[in-house]
Fold each of these.
Amino acid sequence: DQQVKQNSPSLSVQEGRISILNCDYTNSMFDYFLWYKKYPAEGPTFLISISSIKDKNEDGRFTVFLNKSAKHLSLHIVPSQPGDSAVYFCAASAQGGGADGLTFGKGTHLIIQP
Amino acid sequence: EAGVAQSPRYKIIEKRQSVAFWCNPISGHATLYWYQQILGQGPKLLIQFQNNGVVDDSQLPKDRFSAERLKGVDSTLKIQPAKLEDSAVYLCASKARVYSDSPLHFGNGTRLTVT
């Protein structure tokens, strides 16, 4: 039973355009959501997060949107740059109920075309 | 600040052999996690420590996997005996405090191949 789902294994976007990566979750106890970026042969690197008390968080070119009623979040990258080509993982945790290890989706491979 | 250190980077063993991985978290980070990432999947939590105590090991295959965090700093993850399906990248991560709104910081992982 996958509690965090990223339904697009890959996404190709032209340089300078907007990249939109989507993530759905099923566990209503999740209250903290993160996006990680991963290059080959490296560990995941934290990108941006959002708490369930917010519906938007922005950091430079990266914005995360959270729709709690739809159990959906998205990551927007504007403008997309060649260095953004990587695998992006959506992750979630329940902060108050005990252990807070992250549950990850399978990832979306973002390819930025020149 | 130095990141999460893991060793070795790569390990190749035969099935039924044993293997151990080492992790040194970011200085001062009380919470430490071990994740398993199989090719094409997202990382899956194996075990979480708070200082030297286990917080969650519900997904750790305890018949063959064990982990310890003596003195609340470094940690080792052991597999004995290894199976073919254990081939994966083993990631260690740390965080300053449990239940805090702060991200996990990952090491570069150990890639295990079981033949």
Amino acid sequence: AQSVAQPEDQVNVAEGNPLTVKCTYSVSGNPYLFWYVQYPNRGLQFLLKYITGDNLVKGSYGFEAEFNKSQTSFHLKKPSALVSDSALYFCAVRDNTNTGNQFYFGTGTSLTVIP
Amino acid sequence: DSGVTQTPKHLITATGQRVTLRCSPRSGDLSVYWYQQSLDQGLQFLIQYYNGEERAKGNILERFSAQQFPDLHSELNLSSLELGDSALYFCASSVQGLARTDTQYFGPGTRLTVL
């Protein structure tokens, strides 16, 4: 079965510092991994995805993610955090079975960027 | 703005009642997905439709049903509502929904409160 884990419920980082939001995955077959961000009272917004190829994926708003097959991880990163990055971040893996291709989401990580 | 619209934004109803949530996908998207987000269960996939046909089913209760119409909009029907059905219900759409590389774009959600 496909699953992702986000080991940290909450991450605090000072504005201007680099940020990392962690995600590990468990899949059978090729992993298709996604990151979404949810601002208060809003829907999920797509940030980036890993399908194949370069292990460093660049996405929206200056975010990037590093795919590490040996560690089964897909951590979200940003070199310099902004206060406006404060939000709820979800890692997701795509179902690889033949019956469907829905997402399995992690439990989410609340990021707070401190001014 | 993802291009996915959902109505209504908020819904307050009583136990035992029935409600209908509506979703219009992005122009050109053939697949619609429904998700439930609650504090205790996180983000859970309910059901997917592709071009009018049910494609995949997740943790959807028998009291819940959905359909996708010829114009591709979708409705999620929730009946015999219970307090535990209170949640945020998201709709997402993707171009095809058959390729696991497809990005899903989420609507702003409908917040359902059952009293």
